[in-house]
């Protein structure tokens, strides 16, 4: 069965590479991925998948399904295809989407033997307002048995952790005045923002080591001789768990309320991006993926333990079904994500070959689960215990 998966992926290698190159050469920001959306859905339809477009009224979101016609588990592959502002595909999403789609098409070649169904979730805007968040909130993963994806990197790394995150905007409203002639008539909104930063910095002494609070001043006034009547700060508030992140959000809110009270400003808070939950790696499923890397020739010494790489909207998926997010080596040089160097190397032939390699590993993993009911039972048992 695995040789059939390999043969299917390799026979479509030229097509898969061409699509990845096209998306890489035509970067689109989150919720604007119309070219990528068209190419990806056309390819899946060509291979017999049924396409639901515009999921949850998100124009560039889709769910592609192939049903074996026999009862069995639902395997989901996550496709990401948004780019970064100015940097383009410096996070390798043009590889991620074709890793998942290649895996789905490879798995399709054997699913008549195993039963079950395959879904590819096209999830826009992972870098900002990740579509996995509203998809998870709508329950679109609740009947999924396993969810798989892999992320390009400069080394192999097991699926690890991510931080739960809230993106919060604090707006302070004061009263403008001439800063030299009548400063006493003003209420300085910028002072409130500065006080917020100072209060958060004082708060850090009492926070757990996994807490991350970092922000910018996105609006601080118009001219030095005008008391600013409006100022805005945007923060990411993160920690290892949703529970503690919720506590942090309240602590920061108290800092903002105190800053408003001290300066005489009024305060408005809002979320300017979606909230991400922490990634809960299913270790049993993760070990299956690692075993497939070994089977495909990767040595144990090449695979590092899982680490924290910030925040992922996949975390919201992992609260609803067993999920993994390993990192895979696609470049030989040690270049970090979100850099021009990484972006350029992910467009080369070795990176595209690694994309196909990863598609095989993902498809092999899904086949192992589909063909071994006891393995799926162990995966679900771990998931239930974690919840």
TrEMBL record:
This is Peptidase M20 domain-containing protein 2. Keywords: Hydrolase. It holds the Pfam family M20_dimer. The keyword Nucleus does not apply. Residues 171-254 form the Peptidase M20 dimerisation domain. It comes from the Bacteria. It comes from Paenibacillus allorhizoplanae. GO terms for molecular function: hydrolase activity.
């Amino acid at each position: 069965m695995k040789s059939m998966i390999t043969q299917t992926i390799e026979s479509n290698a030229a097509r898969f590479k061409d699509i990845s190159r096209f998306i890489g050469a035509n970067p689109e920001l989150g919720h604007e991925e119309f070219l990528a959306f068209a190419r990806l859905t056309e390819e899946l339809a060509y291979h017999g998948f049924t396409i639901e477009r515009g999921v949850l009224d998100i124009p560039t979101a889709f769910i592609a399904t192939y049903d074996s016609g026999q009862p069995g588990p639902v395997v989901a592959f996550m496709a990401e295809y948004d780019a970064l502002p100015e940097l383009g595909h410096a996070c390798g999403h043009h590889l991620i989407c074709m890793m998942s789609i290649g895996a789905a098409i490879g798995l399709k070649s054997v699913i008549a033997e195993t039963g079950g169904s395959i879904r590819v979730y096209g999830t826009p805007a992972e870098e900002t307002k990740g579509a996995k968040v509203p998809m998870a909130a709508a329950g679109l993963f609740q009947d999924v048995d396993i969810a798989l994806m892999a992320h390009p990197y400069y080394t192999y790394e097991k699926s690890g952790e991510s931080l739960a995150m809230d993106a919060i905007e604090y707006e302070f409203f004061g009263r403008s005045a001439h800063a030299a002639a009548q400063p006493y008539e003003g209420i300085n909104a910028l002072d409130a923002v500065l006080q917020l930063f100072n209060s958060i910095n004082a708060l850090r002494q009492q926070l757990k080591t996994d807490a991350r609070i970092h922000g910018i001043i996105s609006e601080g006034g118009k001219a030095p001789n005008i008391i600013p009547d409006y100022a805005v700060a945007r923060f990411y508030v993160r920690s290892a768990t949703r529970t503690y992140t919720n506590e942090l959000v309240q602590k920061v809110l108290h800092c903002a309320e105190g800053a408003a009270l001290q300066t005489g400003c009024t305060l408005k808070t809002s979320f300017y991006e979606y909230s991400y939950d922490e990634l809960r790696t299913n270790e049993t499923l993760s070990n299956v993926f690692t075993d497939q890397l070994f089977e495909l020739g990767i040595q144990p010494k090449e695979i590092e333990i899982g680490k924290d790489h910030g925040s992922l909207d996949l975390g919201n998926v992992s609260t609803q079904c067993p999920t993994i997010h390993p990192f895979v080596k696609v470049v030989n040089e040690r270049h970090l994500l979100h850099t021009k160097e990484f972006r350029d190397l992910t467009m080369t032939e070795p990176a595209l070959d690694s994309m196909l390699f990863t598609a095989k590993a993902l498809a092999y993993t899904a086949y192992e689960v589909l063909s071994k009911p006891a393995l799926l039972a162990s995966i679900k048992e771990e998931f239930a215990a974690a919840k």
